[in-house]
Amino acid sequence: xxxxxxxxxxxxxxxxxxxxxxxxxxxxxxxxxxxxxxxxxxxxxxxxxxxxxxxxxxxxxxxxxxxxxxxxxxxxxxxxxxxxxxxxxxxxxxxxxxxxxxxxxxxxxxxxxxxxxxxxxxxxxxxxxxxxxxxxxxxxxxxxxxxxxxxxxxxxxxxxxxxxxxxxxxxxxxxxxxxxxxxxxxxxxxxxxxxxxxxxxxxxxxxxxxxxxxxxxxxxxxxxxxxxxxxxxxxxxxxxxxxxxxxxxxxxxxxxxxxxxxxxxxxxxxxxxxxxxxxxxxxxxxxxxxxxxxxxxxxxxxxxxxxxxxxxxxxxxxxxxxxxxxxxxxxxxxxxxxxxxxxxxxxxxxxxxxxxxxxxxxxx
Length: 364
Known about the structure:
Layout: H1 4-12, H2 14-31, H3 36-74, H4 83-86, H5 96-101, E1 109-117, E2 124-130, E3 137-143, H6 157-165, E4 169-173, H7 185-199, E5 206-216, H8 218-228, E6 237-241, H9 247-252, H10 262-270, H11 278-283, E7 297-302, H12 310-322, E8 327-332, H13 346-362
Parallel strand pairs: 3-4, 3-5, 5-6, 6-7, 7-8
Antiparallel strand pairs: 1-2, 2-4
Helix pairs in contact: 2-3, 3-13, 7-8
C-alpha cells in the first residue's frame, strides 16, 4: 500500500520526471570517470528517463483511441454542443504546459455544510459550488472515494470548482462509513441527498430535470447503484471513475498484488462474504441492475488499476451496450487507480476533456 501513491503519481507527472532524469543523466555524463559505480548510475538515470517518457510517447495514440470511444458511444456528439459552452471547455485533450503550470478551475461560489439528512443522529452535509452568476443550472452530484470507510466532500474540490465555473451547480455529498455502518447505509445516504436536491433545486439554482451523478471508486459504485436501481429518482447520466461494478467477482478474483486487501474491505462493507450473503452481494453490485433504458454511462478507468481490475469494467460496458444502453468506456493505458488525484496530470487532462463533453451532451 505504501508504494501505491508513487505508482499513481509517477505517470501523471512524467514531464517533470523527464526533465529531472535528463538533468541527472547529463550530470552523470559530465562527471563520469568510468568507474563501475558511475557507469551504473548512468544506466539507472537513462533507464529512469526512458520509463518517465513512455506515457508521453503513448499520448498521441491514446488521444485517438479515447476520441474514437466517444464517437463510438455518442456518435457525432460535438455538433450538439452549443458553441458558447464549447468555448468554456478545454480546447485540447492534453496540454503539456498545464502539467507544469496547473489548470485554473475558474471562478465559482462556494457554500459548505448544507445538512441534507440526519440518519441515526449522524448529520450528513454537502458542499455546493455554483457559477459566479445567479441562474438555473444543470446539477452534478459528486460522490467521493475512500473504500466506503473514509473521505469527505472536500475531495476533488478542483474538479467541483472547475465544473461550477463552466455552468453547473455541483453538490459534493457525504455518506456514512464502514465499519460502523455497512451496506446499504451508504446507498441510503446517496438516495437521501438526491431526494434533497430534487426538493430544494430552485433554492440552490439547480434544474431537477438535468441531474447527473459523478463518483470515484467507492463513490462511482454508489453513483451507478443510485442511477440504475429500478425505483431510483431519475437522473440524466452517470459517470464512474474506477468504480467497482461486480462485488462478488471482485471478491472471488482480487487483484494481484492486492494493496488494500480487497476481500477484507468487502467483508467490512458488506458484513460477510459472497458465500454467506449472495443476495446482498448481488444487491450491492451495479452489474446486477443492467437492463434496457438506463441513463447514459461514462466509465473512466486506468489499464494499470491495481485496486479495481479493468476486466470487470469492460464486462460492465459490454453488458450495458448489449442491452441497448449508451455507454462509453475510456481506458487510459498508463493510469492507476485514483489517477485524477493529480488534477493537472496526464490522465486527468484526458478524462476532464471528455467528461465535460459527455456531461454537456447528456444534460444539454
